[in-house]
């Protein structure tokens, strides 16, 4: 059975979510108050409707409650975002993901029961800053305020050495939990696994420790 999603707010963020979900084969009901946006997405989404989601009767009439997952991508208008979240939560929607504009908005959303709160601009800023600090840091997944998993490309300073040679865990307190090598991926690599030039290391740990490793090994 196809997965079914509702995306509310068809700005840049919501719009790209609709496009990607459809590309991945999901059914998507796209909603916006703006006629032009809805016209644009009528050709892309499974269904696109004009509606104001701060109106409870409207939400009920659209049957949003029956969808597995609702994404609220209302940007600027924080009040509409909060009200929509509240109404959907009261109606018993199981999974609600909401885009937060700032930390206060995020805190309110968490208090009223949003299941996932995302900060796309902030996260993208962090990701780009990390990439700028070192071209060897390819990607970044935040686990907490202080911990993350980073994809780090092996350069000639570490290629040819095994994990035991580098002794990364003892020296930096971080762990290499996987190695991407071309199409292959080595999960939990053995201590004597030799790193090759161009390998992508999946490193988990505290941000300060990972950054210390990157600075030392990749400068
Ligand atoms: P982004 O920063 O992702 O581009 P925008 O703030 O530009 O986000 O877009 C948010 C979209 O949400 C707009 O197209 C706007 O018309 C829509 N929107 C705002 N309030 C509501 C609402 N109550 N119901 C439905 N859509 C809404």
Automatic annotation (TrEMBL):
For the RCK N-terminal domain, which residue ranges apply? 2-118
GO biological process: what's one of them?
potassium ion transport
One family from Pfam that matches here is TrkA_C
Matching InterPro entries: NAD(P)-bd_dom_sf, RCK_C, RCK_C_sf, RCK_N, Trk_Ktr_HKT_K-transport
- Where are the coiled-coil regions? none
- Residues of the RCK C-terminal domain: 135-219
From the UniProt record, which GO molecular function terms apply? monoatomic cation transmembrane transporter activity
Q: What name appears for this protein in its UniProt entry? A: Trk system potassium uptake protein TrkA
């Amino acid at each position: 059975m196809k997965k079914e999603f509702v995306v509310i707010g068809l700005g840049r963020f919501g719009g790209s979510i609709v496009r990607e979900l459809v590309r991945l084969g999901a059914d998507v009901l796209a909603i916006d108050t703006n006629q032009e946006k809805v016209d644009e997405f009528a050709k892309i989404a499974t269904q696109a409707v004009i509606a104001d989601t701060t109106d409870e009767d409207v939400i009920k009439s659209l049957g949003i409650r029956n969808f597995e997952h609702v994404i609220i991508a209302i940007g600027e208008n924080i009040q509409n975002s909060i009200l929509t979240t509240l109404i959907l939560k009261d109606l018993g929607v199981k999974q609600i993901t909401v885009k937060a504009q700032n930390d206060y908005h995020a805190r309110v959303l968490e208090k009223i029961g949003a299941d996932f709160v995302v900060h796309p601009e902030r996260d993208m800023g962090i990701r780009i800053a990390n990439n700028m600090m070192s071209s060897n840091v390819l990607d970044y997944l935040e686990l907490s305020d202080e911990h993350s998993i980073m994809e780090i490309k092996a350069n000639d300073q570490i290629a040819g050495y095994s994990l035991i040679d580098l002794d990364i865990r003892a020296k930096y307190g971080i762990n290499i939990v996987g190695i991407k090598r071309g199409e292959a991926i080595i999960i939990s690599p053995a201590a004597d696994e030799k790193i090759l030039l161009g390998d992508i290391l999946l490193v988990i740990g505290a941000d300060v420790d990972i950054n210390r490793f990157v600075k030392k090994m990749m400068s």
